Every structure is written in C-alpha cells, then in structure tokens.
Amino acid sequence: MPQKGRLASFFRPCGLIWFSICLHWEAFTEAVRQDGLAALVHLRQIRDAASAKLLSITSSNFIAFEDTTIVPSLVEAASGVVLELGPGPGNQIHRYNTSLVNYVYGVEPNPHFKDDINAKLEKHSLRDRYKLIVSGVEDSDVLREEGITEGSLDAVLCIQVLCAVKDPKTVMKEVWKLLKPGGKFIFWEHGRSRNHLTTVAQAFLNPAWSTFVGCHMTRNVLADILNSGEWENPGDIEEPEDPFSCLPRIQGVLVKKA
Q1: Strand-pair partners of 105
Q2: Is 24:32 a contact under the CB 8 Å cutoff?
Q3: Dihedrals φ, ψ of 157, to 5°?
Q4: What CA–CA distance (Å, rounded) separates 17 from 157?
C-alpha cells in the first residue's frame, strides 16, 4: 500500500504536465498562424497565455481541492487592507470575509487573468473593494502609484505563489517591508520534501513541472519566508506530514514583529 501511494503521488503531476504541454503547443501554433516566425520573438507572451488557460480551465478543481484544506480559513483571516500575491484566475475571491476586509489589491504579473478575475468580482459583488494590478510585487514604482508603500498593509495573502515567482527571496523581503508592524503574512505553499526518496522524485519532475506548469517543486520555501525579516511567531508555521507528496504543504499566519 505505501508503494502504491508513492507511485500515485509521482504519476499524478504527470497528467497536469501533459495537459499543459498540449496547451502550450496550441498557444504556440496559434501564434505562428497569426504572426508567422515573428511569434518566436514573443515566447514569453505565448507562455503566459498558455499558463493562464491551464489555471483557468482547472480553476474549479483547485477550488474544490482547497475546500478540503485549511485554505478557506486562512483566507478568512485576512483583514483591513490586503495585498493578494498572484491571484491567478481569482480562486480566493469568494473566500474573503467582507466584514473584515476594507480593500484588496491583487498583484498579478500575467495580464491574461483579467477576465476571470473581473467575472468573479462581479459574481461576488466585490468590484468596489478589489483592484487588480498587473505587475510583480517587486515593481515598487507601480505599487507606490496605488498607495502601497512600506508599512502600509494589514495583511498579505499568498496561496501557492512562492513556488512560481522568479526570485522568492526578493518577493518575501518586499512582502515583509510592505506589512505594517503587527501585519499578517497568510500563506499556503509547497516546497522541498523532507523525505529523501520524494526529493529524488521532485528533482526528476521539476524540469518539466517548472517549464510547463510554471512553479518549482524543489524550493526551500520555509527558509525564504523566515529569512525575509523578523516575525513574532515563527513556531506557528505548520508542515502537515505527507512523505509521499511531491507537493508537500507549508502553511500558517505569521505576524510581523513590531
């Protein structure tokens, strides 16, 4: 039985990798039909379009899975002025406690998610309290234009994002700076397994997973979070035991030290 569990955990990501490869090929061939060889100059845009389509198609499945985890209660812990890192297709929008949240800034570098997010904002009547900013959190000039400056945020929500950003260390240092003293960093991430056999599987899958799904399996996310600045409660971080999973979770609500 344990062996079957390990094999299932290894092969499960392969299905998503293959589906994403098909979507990337579809996006590439469509771009070539429209622009000819000039499409080769726009590979990043092609990849963004394919990645957005992947996450949009699978959005309902991700939401259903997250409903079985701690994610809904984590999102409900957000209050005041909130920055949501990488909202993607807007899977968390319906989970905000509107009696606690004053305003949410969704910081998302991929412009192809705009329609999905706008549709969810309309559905859940949050258009007047949520603004999508198409940029990275490192783009301080863009954020400053929106009034997001050092020490201005009550909470930052980060659901499966640090695995996908280019430089998680830089992102986390920016997050820590933007939070007020006493502000909350609310997260549900995945990273490198503590099980040696699983780390081998992660290393094998990671090149294809990171290329076509867009996130990394082998990052030390815990270190990136803890090394970003001083936190009042680092001992509250949870790492549910899941030795076979190639996507082992790390989760919690950290409070920035005053």
Answers
A1: 83, 131
A2: no
A3: -100, 130
A4: 26
| Helix (H), strand (E) at residue 92 | none
- CA–CA gap between residue 31 and residue 44 (Å, rounded): 12
Per the DSSP assignment, residues forming a β-bridge with 157 are 84, 186
Coil, strand, or helix at residue 104? Answer: strand
- CA 176 to chain CA mean position, Å: 17
CA angle 143, 54, 66 (to 5 degrees): 75
CA 85/CA 162 separation, integer angstroms: 9
- Per-residue pLDDT band at 3 (split at 50, 70, 90): low
Q: How do residues 193-225 score in pLDDT, each as one tens digit?
A: 999 999 999 999 999 999 999 999 999 999 999
Three-class SS state of 171? helix
Tokens 């899958």, located at residue: 205
Q: Is the dihedral of CA 136, 209, 25, 28 positive or negative?
A: positive
DSSP string spanning 201-232?
Answer: HHHHHHHHIIIII---SS--HHHHHHTTS-BS
The alpha carbons of the chain give a radius of gyration, in whole angstroms, of 18
From residue 26, alpha-carbon distances to 32, 40, 54 in Å are 10, 14, 11
